[in-house]
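can u do me a favor
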């Protein structure tokens, strides 16, 4: 498709001048460039640290050097006397002024933890904030923080789940009987006898490392309180502005109608920026207390130490099969190290529940049982990160299938094909409970094999082995559950997530359209995609649409951006609002022509009589709606403004197959990814360029998880990977060419047939690369521990 471009302005969430950019094609379909990206590339975007308010002061936090310790006393006099220091607040003082962060879950085994924004009695992980210093600039605030003297009584620590599960383990929260924050047994368990009597049984332990998202922009918050109006405005590099507003209101006791949260340009989120951080509560409180704008920008060490971590899960699993390769059942136990507190709003149940739903993958079999645990430890709390526990699904299931294929002497692709449900089985009930709405999984597998030329890769592998080279091919088939609605979160008991989203459309008298949607952007191209979607629905030029995001005063209430929900949920709300607008335009035209609305229809950006005798364009109708000479039909308000709240279906299920080709250096254990193929089905695509960007970015993060990334703590709970010299992330040299092929099976459950795709690359890549490495080595270790660093691979080569 040829791209046609214009120079239409495109408004940023809170500042029109910051968002002006080159417009996109008036053609509302296909891979058009994202309007919002060009100003960012030119340095014209406004991120949190680019926002400067008169009289702003800065915060630095005093953080614990201990993983577990009692706070005995704190001396702040020297800090208060430092030049430029305006205030020092301690946890002991703050606890009387704000409420702790309290994440709730409707689940019998769940245990609540109160997370005070500043620790006041004891600290529970290295980096936990105990005091905040406010100064005229960040340098003076840092100098003041160094002068705050805290006396601690070190306590025994339990920084790892195996330590924390012991009966004599130190209690992370003394008021709780043990360190289990959640313990559940899930699954259907339909045929345990067939499982235990199966002729083929394979098992293994799979350990996913603790990781974190590495957005180019760290977290940060700026708050300003206007005393006369008692209006609190908070700018945060955040994915869920309305949920942050909810938690700020709860902790601060500030009414939501006088609390505005704005997410400006956000330099990457990946789920890390959807949790409420203690620093956001503290900064907002200080803005009210001091009567001045207060700002905190996270540095990289703070991000690594005390932002939000993810995963840190090990799974023991056993898979049973018949002699002809049919899966009979899966049983598993998953232990999730969730750190010191439940994070808001997803709680410690996020990883266990998603692991449980992900393990069966896209396969059809009768018996499934899983035990899941969330274990509190003396580490930074965990929360959402791209893929969450769904990454463990293919890592475990696809790993076990490869072991079974070797035991059966069967090609791994053929074994998978035998167990995938046919297309006429949809809606397909997964053994884990969720129902997958649509797809053709066998065809998707065939597409991946065809695009990669699988037979040629196997021949290439045999030739390499004859030369002494270690080439491996890894497959991963999986399902990505996206855009989950209220029913899913209700079943999970996650009461603090509204699970719906909103959209509002305002049309002026000249037919120019302003759209506000509750799902903000962190670089995914929502503004362009939403504009394309609405242009398609209304049949109007793309250049006439302006999209507003990320501001609780300008957008309807909604859940925000996470769990691959923007297009499904925010887009669904937008389509629903567009339908309301069309209905209003039809009634307006019918009144103007003095005919019945049933004799009028909306077609291609205009309203016409069914007999085609009369026609009004969108612009003409907009003028009619705003002029006093047109009588409005009964019950129809003047003007053109509509709003919709959309509750998406339980889930729209995308699917993908990943295939990785790797070579392992026999002498060093170094793994090189030589080729990578993705066959994905996220339903009809609004903008394929955006979809492929999501997939490629996700695969890059998955390569990091498979080969490089790991947050490490020692046995005393000290962080060992506090910088990017220690926590390794992939760069351009680690990235292979990624070939992407698409299928488009529409979802029968979503308003426009689309499904989410934001996490797909990250979910599949660790499993595909791990299987490729083990295929190269022809080993089935009792434990697979990521990342597959050269040292660990060298040990596998030498049987250690």
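np, heres the sequence
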């Amino acid at each position: 498709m040829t791209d046609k471009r214009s120079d239409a302005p495109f408004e940023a969430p809170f500042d029109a001048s910051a968002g002006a950019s080159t417009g996109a094609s008036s053609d509302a379909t296909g891979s058009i460039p994202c309007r919002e990206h060009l100003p960012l590339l030119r340095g014209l975007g406004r991120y949190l640290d680019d926002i400067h308010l008169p009289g702003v002061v800065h915060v630095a936090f005093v953080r614990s050097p201990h993983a577990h310790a009692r706070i005995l006393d704190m001396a702040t006099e020297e800090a208060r006397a430092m030049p430029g220091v305006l205030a020092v607040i301690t946890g002991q003082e703050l606890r009387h002024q704000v409420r702790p962060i309290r994440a709730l879950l409707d689940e019998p085994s769940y245990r609540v933890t109160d997370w005070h924004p500043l620790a006041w009695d004891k600290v529970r992980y290295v980096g936990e904030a105990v005091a905040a210093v406010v100064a005229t600039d960040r340098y003076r605030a840092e100098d003041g923080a160094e002068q705050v003297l805290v006396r601690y009584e070190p306590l025994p620590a339990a920084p790892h789940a195996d330590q924390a599960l012991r009966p004599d383990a130190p209690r992370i929260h003394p008021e709780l009987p043990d360190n289990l924050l959640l313990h559940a047994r899930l699954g259907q368990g339909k045929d345990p006898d067939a499982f235990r009597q199966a002729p083929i049984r394979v098992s293994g332990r799979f350990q996913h490392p603790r990781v974190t998202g590495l957005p180019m922009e760290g977290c940060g918050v700026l708050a300003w309180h206007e005393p006369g109006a008692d209006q609190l405005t908070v700018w945060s590099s955040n994915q869920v502005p309305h949920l942050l507003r909810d938690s700020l209101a709860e902790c601060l006791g500030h009414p939501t109608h006088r609390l505005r949260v704005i997410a400006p340009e956000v330099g990457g989120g990946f789920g890390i920026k959807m949790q409420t951080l203690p620093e956001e509560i503290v900064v907002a409180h200080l803005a009210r207390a001091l009567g001045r704008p207060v700002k905190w920008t996270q540095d990289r060490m703070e991000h690594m130490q005390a932002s939000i971590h993810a995963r840190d899960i090990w799974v023991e699993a056993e898979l049973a099969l018949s002699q002809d390769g049919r899966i009979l059942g899966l049983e598993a136990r998953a232990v999730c190290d969730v750190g010191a507190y439940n994070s808001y709003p997803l709680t410690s149940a996020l990883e266990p529940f998603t692991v449980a739903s992900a393990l069966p993958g896209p396969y059809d079999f009768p018996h499934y049982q899983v035990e899941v645990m969330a274990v509190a430890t003396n580490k930074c709390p965990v929360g959402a990160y791209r893929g969450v526990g769904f990454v463990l699904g293919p890592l475990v299931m696809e790993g076990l299938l490869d072991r079974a294929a070797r035991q059966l002497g069967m090609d791994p692709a053929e074994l998978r094909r035998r167990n995938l449900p046919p297309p006429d089985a949809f809606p397909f009930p997964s053994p884990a409970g969720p129902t997958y709405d649509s797809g053709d999984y066998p065809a998707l597998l065939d597409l991946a094999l065809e695009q990669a030329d699988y037979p040629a890769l196997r021949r290439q592998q045999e030739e390499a082995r004859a030369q002494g080279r270690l080439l491996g091919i890894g497959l991963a088939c999986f399902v990505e559950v996206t855009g989950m609605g209220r029913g899913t979160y209700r079943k999970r008991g996650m009461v603090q997530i509204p699970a719906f989203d909103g959209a509002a459309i305002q049309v002026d008298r000249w037919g120019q359209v302003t759209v506000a949607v509750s799902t903000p952007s962190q670089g995914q191209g929502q503004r362009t995609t939403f504009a394309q979607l609405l242009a398609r629905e209304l049949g109007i030029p793309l250049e006439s649409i302006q999209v507003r995001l990320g501001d609780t005063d300008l957008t309807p209430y909604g859940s925000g951006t996470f769990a691959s929900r923007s297009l499904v949920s925010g887009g669904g709300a937008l389509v629903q609002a567009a339908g309301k607008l069309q209905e209003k335009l039809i009634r307006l035209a019918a009144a103007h022509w003095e005919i019945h609305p049933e004799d009028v229809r909306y077609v291609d950006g205009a309203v016409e009589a069914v007999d085609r005798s009369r026609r009004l364009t969108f612009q003409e109708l907009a003028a009619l709606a705003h002029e006093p000479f047109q009588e409005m039909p009964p019950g129809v308000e003047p003007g053109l403004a509509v709003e919709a709240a959309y509750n998406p279906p339980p889930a729209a299920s995308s699917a993908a197959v990943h295939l990785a080709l790797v070579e392992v250096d026999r002498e060093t254990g170094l793994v090189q990814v030589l080729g990578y193929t993705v066959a994905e089905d996220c339903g009809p695509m609004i903008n394929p360029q955006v979809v492929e960007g999501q997939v490629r970015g996700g695969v890059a993060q998955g390569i990091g998880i498979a080969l490089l990334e790991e947050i490490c703590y020692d046995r005393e709970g000290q962080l060992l990977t506090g910088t990017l010299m220690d926590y390794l992330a992939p760069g351009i040299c680690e990235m292979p060419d990624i070939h992407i092929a698409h299928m488009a099976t529409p979802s029968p459950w979503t308003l426009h047939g689309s499904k989410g795709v934001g996490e797909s690359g990250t979910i599949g890549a660790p499993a595909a690369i791990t299987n490729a490495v083990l295929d190269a080595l022809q080993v089935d270790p009792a434990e697979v521990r990521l990342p597959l660093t050269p040292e660990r691979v060298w040990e596998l080569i030498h049987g250690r």
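The first strand starts at residue 57 and ends at 63. hope that helps!!
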